[in-house]
Amino acid sequence: EDKVVQSPLSLVVHEGDTVTLNCSYEVTNFRSLLWYKQEKKAPTFLFMLTSSGIEKKSGRLSSILDKKELFSILNITATQTGDSAVYLCAVVPPRGSGAGSYQLTFGKGTKLSVIP
Amino acid sequence: GAVVSQHPSWVICKSGTSVKIECRSLDFQATTMFWYRQFPKQSLMLMATSNEGSKATYEQGVEKDKFLINHASLTLSTLTVTSAHPEDSSFYICSAVWVGSYNEQFFGPGTRLTVL
After folding, report:
1. H/E element holding A75?
2. Model confidence over B32-43: pLDDT tens digits?
3. A94 pLDDT higher than 80
4. What's the N-to-C CA distance of chain A in angstroms?
5. Cα(A1)–Cα(B62) distance, rounded to whole angstroms?
6. Which among A22, A30, A34, B72 has the fewest CB atoms less than 10 Å away?
7. How close is the nearest chain B Cα to the Cα of A109, in Å?
8. B58 pLDDT band (50/70/90 cuts)?
9. CA nearest to B103, candidates A11, A50, A84
10. Chain A CB within 8 Å of residue B34 CB
């Protein structure tokens, strides 16, 4: 059973729309939750969320974590065609897990397509 | 800073041959590197944890005799796919942990392996 579940799996929107991507997780003990954007190659880092309720913002992207309800959302406002990508979330295990402290558990991702 | 390179970017080989993929941290030392595999339209799946100076730790279902990992220095890990078969065709991505940046993982650009 998946520990990190992203929804929707795929999303098609028009330029200018606002989208919300969801990431829910079953892991209760973790250090942080990460969001990545993956285009054709390797993922690029977007946000690291550690504390519940504190919004992280970068330009048109923002993200927030709810540790009580075990989910995170990634918002993209005024979408552009360049936002088309797969967005991945991942959880980081707690410290003291040995070599496993660095292992990321990824969700399957949300494929976002922004059409002109 | 924090650049990770992979070589080659793309390799096509015949079934039965072995292929070596290199992962280098260019401007930092990484005692821990990870190898992921990504099939089309799927998320990154962790294959193994590569620790400098010790044996790699493989995830369940990953054959250690088929996917040989060597982490001989603090800036280089190699993944050798031995006796490759068409089902090994995939996108292989490595990441390196930079202790100096709160143990953040930095991803390489990936290597696309096609086995004919």
Report:
1. strand A71-76
2. 899 999 888 778
3. no
4. 37
5. 18
6. B72
7. 6
8. very high
9. A50
10. yes
